[in-house]
Amino acid sequence: MKYDVIIIGGGPAAVAAGVYAARKSMKAAVIADQIGGQSVVSDGIENWIGEKLIPGSELAKKLTDHLEGYKDVIDLKIPEKVESIAKKDNDYHVITSNGEYSTKSIVLCSGGRHRRLGIVGEDQFEGKGVAFCATCDAPFFREKDVAVVGGGNSGLEAVVDLLPYVNKVYLLVRDDAPHGDPVTMKEVEESDKVEIVRHAESQEVKGDVMVEGLVYEDNETKETHELAVQGIFVEIGSVPNSEIVKDLVEINDFGEVVVDHRTNATSDAGVFAAGDVTDGPYKQNNIAVGDAIKALLSAYDYAKKK
Ligand SMILES: Cc1cc2nc3c(=O)[nH]c(=O)nc-3n(C[C@H](O)[C@H](O)[C@H](O)COP(=O)(O)OP(=O)(O)OC[C@H]3O[C@@H](n4cnc5c(N)ncnc54)[C@H](O)[C@@H]3O)c2cc1C
Fold it and tell me: 142-155: per-residue pLDDT in tens?
């Protein structure tokens, strides 16, 4: 059996594509290791349109229910992991942890993962003070002292997102100064809530139940210091889950799949992509969903002609 489309991923983008594939009566499969996507770990999502506040776990349940509502129409291969994709005679062969499937087109919604510090306590305190999305989680740190790790633009933007809520922000940078766009930089520098900690190499997250401190080493003096903070935002970039298509489509220097933002087509005619895996500038749930619908409708037009 050959599918019209195989949707890879289990976040909001993939679920949206799955729903639209069902409604377009495509022969479709969604292959995902889990349903929900990255924001499943968030305590509260405040900008999912239609819900004032929804915990990530509840959003994941709603996405699952919506997709499962179409399980008689499309194949749901969950949990299953896509390991590689081969192209043969203009069709794609998707090889997974469970088998191999052929398809006329692919909608890639494999999302991304945050680059992590890889230090002691980071995993243990994730969701208990260690956070990876200031836009999403800043309101949970009202009146707290927090650290932002990362001297690039995302670190600076995280500081700006936090300023209306927190008591104090330590911005930890590895070099002499943060580097970013001048407007954001000015906002950070002008705030008396911000203290820039230079030459800082984060070493350990301290705490009991919740985060209580961040240990860092000064990479010039080699002295170790501890900041008393209740929150740590890791803003050292993200890693797109694009490895499975790296030999198939154009990927930019950041590992993101390059798409035409009008159609969500990639450089390979039958492969479409949406959400955080792409070079779209804004990584957000609602945007992933809209882009995935565009990708699916483009895949529909493509598969129909084959
Ligand atoms: C902690 C946190 C909080 C956030 N809060 C918000 C918020 O409040 N509001 C907001 O708009 N955005 C928020 N975001 C951003 C938002 O989560 C992302 O923009 C969104 O999840 C992107 O959706 P996606 O479907 O593209 O990818 P993802 O959500 O990353 O989903 C990709 C899915 O594909 C699966 N997958 C990947 N590779 C494979 C493979 N090879 N085989 C099978 N399955 C695979 C993954 O396991 C995952 O389930 C938050 C992000 C984080 C990390």
Answer: 999 999 999 998 89
Global pTM value: 0.81
Q: Which residues have any ligand 1 atom within 6 Å of their CB?
A: 8-14, 31-34, 37-39, 41-42, 45, 47, 81-82, 109-112, 114, 132-133, 136, 241, 244, 275-276, 283-286, 288
Return d(Cα 15, Cα 24) in angstroms, integer. Answer: 14
What digits encode the pLDDT tens for the residues 207-232? 999 999 999 999 999 999 999 999 99
Alpha-carbon distance of 60 to 76, in angstroms, equals 15
**Ligand 1 center from residue 111 Cα (angstroms):** 5
Probe target for ligand 1 pocket from 31, 136, 294, with the most ligand atoms within 8 Å of CB: 136
Structural domains of the chain in order of their starting residue, each with its CATH number: 2-113+238-304 (3.50.50.60), 116-234 (3.50.50.60)
Please state the φ and ψ torsions of residue 136, each to the nearest 5 degrees: -85, -40
